[in-house]
Amino acid sequence: MKSSPALTPEFATSQWVDKWATYAPNQIALQWDDLSVSLTYADCAKKVHHLAWKLKNETHISSGDRVAILSLNSIEYVLLFFAIQKLGAILIPLNFRLTAAELDWPMQDASPKVLIYEKEFEQTVGKLSQKPAHVICLDVFLRGMDDSPSLSAEDCVIPAADDACMILYTSGTTGRPKGAVITHKMIFWNSINTGLRLNLTQQDVTLTFAPFFHTGGWNVLTTPFLHRGARLILSNKFDPDKVLQLCDDQKVTILFGVPTMMDMMSRAASFEQAELTSVRYAIVGGEPMPVKLIEQWHAKNVPIRQGYGLTEFGPNVFSLNEEDAIRKIGSIGFPNFYIETKVVDDHGKETATNEPGELLLRGPACMKGYWNNVEATAKTIVDGWLHTGDIVRKDEEGYFYVMDRKKDMFISGAENVYPAEVEHTLRLIKGVREVAVIGVPDPKWGESGMAFIVCDEDASLTKDAIITFCKERMAKYKIPKHIRFLDELPKSDSGKILKRKLREMV
Question: Least C-beta-crowded within 10 Å: which of 9, 200, 305, 494?
Fold first, then answer.
């Protein structure tokens, strides 16, 4: 077996399925959401070795080669992730919502040797300006998989801790997408941090419906669950009624979603009838969850745990204990195990209690850097500290609060305004369902706030009522000068509000 002195096999994510195939071969690892397919850990280990053999013999990939996948979520996608690692190669999950023109950049930047695509994306693949040596339809590749030989132990690669196993491309809101290099060490320590903080057990069950081109699809619960030998139910789309039904029928223990998804479930026709007795808590990230929505879930005896993370670190970085969900509304809680934090001003000096500053992170769950981008890596990771670009504050009890993205902050009359802080206040208004605040040009103050608000159907809010509410709760310079009511806010595939789209509406 090829080995490296830099890493013991226990750290290699490629070993996890094999380990559980020995420890608990009959434990269900992966299921499809209609329950038409259920694979035990023994089944998964066998299929992973078959897939690895096919990859090696049909595409001749080896250590360091990149394999791009353009596909919806599927059980085979997860198996390919582990099979690719068996050869020391690197997975490139492509965003299936992008056009061929948009996909040309990650294809050029990562230069994959292999592209595996789901048949429904055949036209997109045909329009790519740059294609790798091997372009393979997933359905065709899977034919005869179970009858093929297995990759031998001698041909399996045991990676070094800092070897890449995945490259995840960021949204590219400030330019071309950057490829965050995800290492074996990063996934391992994220899993350890998650398991310790969420008390994961082999008996846990969760749903994965976040797309695999997002870190949330892989690393919030999928990889930690597979490391722990627990059970994953996979889906390629979010259906609130179906999720609620699966929670009851399959005794889901931990639920993950962004506030938009939690809101959609609370409004689903089946929410009142759903028992949800098996759900220990829901993990919520992306943005703060309104108190009213938290209370709706608490009324169903489902505690809410707000969290925080990013593609480049973690992603499970902070977690708020469920008992503090209301008392510390808006807080992301405390950093998870094996994560160091600093909050600094523009000069790199640590800030005082409740004073806003940029969040810096250090620890083994940090990315290696950005693929082919030394300059961006050097700006983001300085002396071992990852600069998140997020503005946070820490209160007297040590709880952290995200004030805003550093780039989203605007200056009104020489005062810094953090939209997330304003949004938190606006969410307290009865009848406000969703809100987003941006800075817009102002002839007198330089910039002023514009709030985009989605109201409950039975609400009759006015601009004057909102301004009056704000005057009693925040400084004048923070109060939005402009209020716009919308039927819905533009959102990304993961449910996050797209402020760049709102800026285009101004």
Answer: 9
Query: Phi and psi of 366, rounded to 5°?
Result: -90, 145
User: Are 167 and 13 a contacting pair, CB within 8 Å?
Assistant: no
- CB 331, CB 320: distance < 8 Å: yes
pLDDT one-digit tens code per residue, 121-134: 999 999 999 899 99
Distance linking the first and last C-alpha atoms of the chain: 60
Which amino acid, one-letter code, is at 203? Answer: Q
Q: What is the pLDDT of residues 106-160, one digit of tens each?
A: 999 999 999 999 999 999 999 999 899 999 999 999 998 889 999 998 899 988 8
Q: Tell me the angle at which helices 259-266 and 240-249 cross, rounded to the nearest 10 degrees.
A: 80
Distance (Å, rounded) from C-alpha 21 to C-alpha 412? Answer: 59
Count Cα atoms within 13 angstroms, Cβ side, for 121: 23
132 contacts 87 by C-beta, under 8 angstroms: no
Q: E strands within 320-431? A: 331-335, 340-344, 357-362, 381-382, 385-394, 400-405, 410-412, 415-417
What Å distances lie between residue 473 and 12, 140, 355, 400, CA to CA?
51, 61, 18, 21
276 phi-psi bin (left φ>0, alpha ψ -120 to 50, beta other): left
CA–CA separation, 487 vs 453, rounded Å? 8
Three-state DSSP class for 16?
helix
Are 315 and 326 a contacting pair, CB within 8 Å?
A: no
CA atoms of 152 and 52, how far apart (whole Å): 10
Secondary structure letter of residue 204 according to DSSP: -
Residues 6+ apart with CB under 8 A from 461: 429, 431, 432, 453, 455, 485
SS3 content of the chain, % helix, strand, coil (to 5): 35, 25, 40
pLDDT tens-digit profile of 437-488?
999 998 888 889 999 999 998 888 999 999 999 988 887 889 999 999 999 9
The torsion defined by the Cα of 343, 390, 368 and 72, in degrees rounded to 10, comes to 150
- Written as six digits, the tokens of 494 are 């993961």
